[in-house]
Design goal:
One of its GO terms (molecular function) is glycosyltransferase activity. Pfam families: Glycos_transf_1. The protein is an alpha/beta fold. The protein folds into two domains: 2-168, 3-Layer(aba) Sandwich (Rossmann fold), CATH 3.40.50; 176-362, Glycogen Phosphorylase B (Rossmann fold, 3-Layer(aba) Sandwich). The protein contains 17 helices and 13 strands. The strands form two sheets. Strands 3-2-1-4-5-6-7 form a seven-stranded parallel sheet, with helices on both faces. It is globular and about 65 Å long.
């Protein structure tokens, strides 16, 4: 089977969507598909190619579409970039007649469907705007892949999409990266963290809807643990440190290569996913509460470390009381209480961590790829 994965994206990128795209292309190819990743040619401060940056096999091709690179130039700049990529796709595929398309880009998907390709849309965020266009575009798709059940319900109810057009395929993780058997102490040595004491960890970006400020405030009430935050751009880290400079047991490391994440996670005693119900970006609020399918959650599960998570529908679609400890979102006092409960109940925490690990086997990139390929061939 020939698959074109189309992404109007700057890659490599420090953002999570780039990791997802790279890992899915690798997984599709590992499952026997002939894969070509089609990207926009954009300015990039990150050196190196997709394969080296993400540490993936060179088992698929990469092609680039020239675009007007105007992202960051406001509303019109964004849409000019989108349109230039879409029309570039039409030129690029003018003589191509075979193959199927998978994409996370609704405009590209719609245009490729008009070109006669069977297009499968991998939905990672339900639209809050432009609903009329989305309804038309989604009905042109040969199938829609959803990362959680909430999106399936919304597509069915709001757009009238039939059930047989929808596939539930949650995000995933790279099982081979977490199969390394390493002790907590050796993991800490590898990443330069203290060998003694408890470590509570968060990995990921520092957007306000991620809830990391709540974790920072909770750190003040968990003085017997070091709270370590791994992730964030240089600007995000500087702002975050300024806001929380008085918290002595808080360390912000900043962005690290994704290949290092298994070591960081295995160095922790507790892993926190503190998603918020509050954001300066109104569109991020429903995304955090209902829509997201965090890759970090599956990686936390695979690390065999106890998880403390916000009690939100998006998180509860994957874990429950048997596999995680929940706290009231945006409540630093309740988050601190939950962290202390995990640290003081070693046996119960170990049992939940092991159950989470067992469940994580359902969510590898390769298993996700196989389900999608079966869906595309139906």
């Amino acid at each position: 089977m020939r698959i074109y994965y189309i992404a109007n994206a700057r890659m490599p990128t420090e953002k999570t969507h780039g990791l997802h795209i790279a890992k899915m292309c690798e997984a599709f190819a590992a499952c026997g598909a002939e894969v070509t990743l089609v990207l926009s040619r954009r300015k990039n401060v990150i050196a190196g190619d997709v394969f080296a940056y993400y540490g993936i096999l060179r088992n698929f091709d990469v092609q680039y579409i020239p675009v007007w690179d105007l992202v960051g130039k406001g509303f019109f700049g964004y849409w000019l970039t989108q349109l230039s990529f879409s029309f570039g796709l039409l030129r690029h595929f003018w003589s191509k007649k075979t193959g199927m398309v998978i994409t996370r880009d609704e405009l590209s998907g719609w245009m490729m469907s008009k070109r006669g390709f069977r297009v499968f849309y991998d939905m990672h965020g339900f639209p809050e705007r432009w609903r009329s266009f989305w309804k038309v575009a989604m009905k042109q798709m040969a199938g829609i892949i959803c990362t959680n059940e909430w999106k399936i319900g919304k597509l069915r109810d709001a757009f009238g999409i039939q059930e047989d057009m929808l596939l539930l395929a949650r995000n995933g993780f790279d099982a081979s990266a977490f199969d390394r058997d390493i002790s907590k102490e050796d993991a800490r040595r590898s990443v330069g963290l203290p060998l003694d004491g408890n470590i509570v960890m968060y990995t990921g970006h520092l957007y306000d809807w991620k809830g990391v400020d709540v974790l920072a405030r909770a750190a003040s009430s968990v003085r017997d643990a070091l709270v370590v935050i791994v992730g964030g751009t240089a600007g995000q880290v500087a702002d975050f440190q300024k806001r929380h400079r008085d918290i002595a047991n808080l360390v912000v490391i900043g962005h690290k290569p994704h290949a290092d994440m298994p070591l960081y996670l295995k160095a922790a005693d507790v892993l926190v996913i503190p998603n918020s119900r509050i954001s300066k970006n109104a569109r991020a609020i429903p995304y955090s509460i209902y829509d997201t399918s965090p890759i970090k959650l599956f990686e936390y599960m695979a690390s065999k470390r106890p998880i403390v998570a916000s009690n939100l529908p998006s998180i509860r679609e994957v874990v429950d009381e048997e596999t995680a400890v929940f706290f009231e979102p945006d409540n630093p006092r309740d988050l601190a209480r939950s962290i202390r409960a995990v640290l003081h109940d070693a046996d119960g925490s170990a049992r939940r961590a092991l159950r989470a690990f067992d469940k994580s086997r359902e969510y590898t990139w390769e298993r996700r790829a196989r389900r999608i390929l079966q869906f595309m061939q139906r």
